[in-house]
Amino acid sequence: MCAARRRWGRRQRALLWAVLLAAWEAAWGQLRYSVPEEMPKGSFVGDVAKDLGLQLTALRDRSVRILDKGRTQYFAVHGKTGHLVTAERIDREQLCESVQQCVLRCELIVDGQMQVYGIEVEITDINDNAPSFREAETELKMSETTAPGSRFRLAEAHDPDSGRNSLQSYELSGDEHFSLAVQAGPGGDQRPELVLAKALDREEAAFHELVLRASDGGDPARTGTARIRVTVLDANDNAPVFSQAEYTVRVAEDVPVGSVLVTVTATDADEGLYGQVKYSLKKVSDMASDIFHLDSETGAITLLRSLDYEEGYSYELEVQGRDGGGLFDTAKVGITVTDINDNTPVILVRSALSEISEDAPSGTVVALLHVQDRDSGANGEVRCSLDEGAPFRLEKSFDDYYHVVTARELDREQVPEYNVTVRAADGGSPALQSSAVLALRVLDVNDNAPVFAEERYSARLAENNAAGALVLTVRATDADWGQNARVRYRLSEGRVRGAPLSSYVSVQAETGALYALRSLDYEQVRELQLWVRAEDGGAPALSSNVSVRLQIVDENDNAPQVLYPPAAPAAGSGGAWSGVELAPRWSEPGALAAGSLTRWLVLAVAAVSCLFVAFLLLLLALRLRRWRRRHLLPPDSGALRGVPVSHFVGIDGVRAFLQSYSHDVSLTADSRKSQLRFSAASCCDTLPARPLPDEPAPLLGEEDVA
Question: Which chain regions cross the lipid bilayer (predicted)?
Fold first, then answer.
């Protein structure tokens, strides 16, 4: 019971480590699963939706795809469960013939997120192949003089399974003259050898029938058998010997078909039939047998079809040289294929946008690219680039995946669409290149207002025009596209002579044509000043204004009108004027015959004119008199300084002194320098004197002087 608990604990710890490993690998964009080979189509591999945290709605919208790196699609994502399932029956031996650990790699692409995740699936082996011999029957020829204990190499069985399911043991049955010995090869493989246990006697038995059985370690075990017929010959005491135990050759993958790659040579010291050596391939894979050919007479190994480094870069052959007496020797031939730059880089567009808004921010992902080159080394190293000047750049995403992102903001009015060329070049000499074009259309944003063709408009229109007459056409253009570039026109509101402007003129919304809605009269309106607005169809809309000046041109549409004499009254109305003017007989030619009324009008005009002239002359005389008085008695000398106004008393407009003063008068020829001075000491008071003020008041007011 304790042992069972320990096993249960180990299973729990292993499960926990597996969960932690899967979570860590998912965080780094890498998932690992394992599945046995030969599982039916649709078998469960792993729960990628759970491991990557993907929503099942994204799977139902088919925005998640699986891409295998090989030519065959082996896996798929179930749209309802999010499970990774097998898309084909997988044969491990077919995919990984000589590889101990068989791993298939694929990528999971999430289109909505422009993300890619790597997935590795290890294909575990099942015991689905039995050991088999290349030849079901083998004939050995031995001399009857062969000493007991001699060993003879037997053909090996081949089991494509791996691990315990591969070849494990050999058994021999059929005759007491022989036994089986198994030797370990350099690579750990088992090499069966037939050991002569008892001397042969051709006269006793010319043939011996044996059965060699090969078994694997599966449960249950699988077996394969080969029949061995030993023919007893006369003595042949020399076996062939190869010049080298191992032949190694390196060839380029572009070597022509039919070329001799290497020639093996074995010699036999015997003469005659026992000295003739024939060559054969004893240990070779099915693929190698289709590529190489061994000439049994010369030992030359030639090429049957073209080599491809990407399909196989190393081959191992085992060549046997046998003489006519049945003795043989074996040699190993190793052929290494070197890579040449014969594969151009391939650019695969895994996900891409076809449209992008011109206001998309810098760094917006527009495409997910996968670049690969089947060559190896420097020949398989790929460098990617974009056209210079394009507003895009490449960013490494995962492994051989790249993001194409915007490097700056786009402007549809400058470039409405882009054909972005992505170039890939490998590191070979000379380098091979390939390219892919991404077509991207830039969607418009309403970022341009309409622009009028002219800064201002003016027109002249003759009066008495017909209603609806075309005055002029304004035109505005918008650099945007579609609805954002559709321009409509309208008038700005205003009033003319108390009436709305829209009752005089109108503008056609689509064409910008300006029409007069009524017949205009120069005697009423001589000029119209208005504003026209152009507005695009964006949301929100952008607009601009332009001024329009409309001048009304006068026409001779009014006849002269006689104000006097008035028109003749109607018959029988009893009007005062008879329509006849009388002129004196002595009137000279050119004299005005308008009658007495006309004469009185002329006299009235003359009288008014005379009165106006007389008024002007009087006004001028008064001005001159005032000017003269100012210069004869200026304000500074005309006042009686030191005598306050309170010392005067006025009676009937005449002012008299309240005190008696003595004064000195000094007169000069220049009246502007005359002086009148009063002496305060010589005055005789007639009324009580008052204290002198700080500032004496003028003797006479300015109005009196004037």
Answer: 600-622
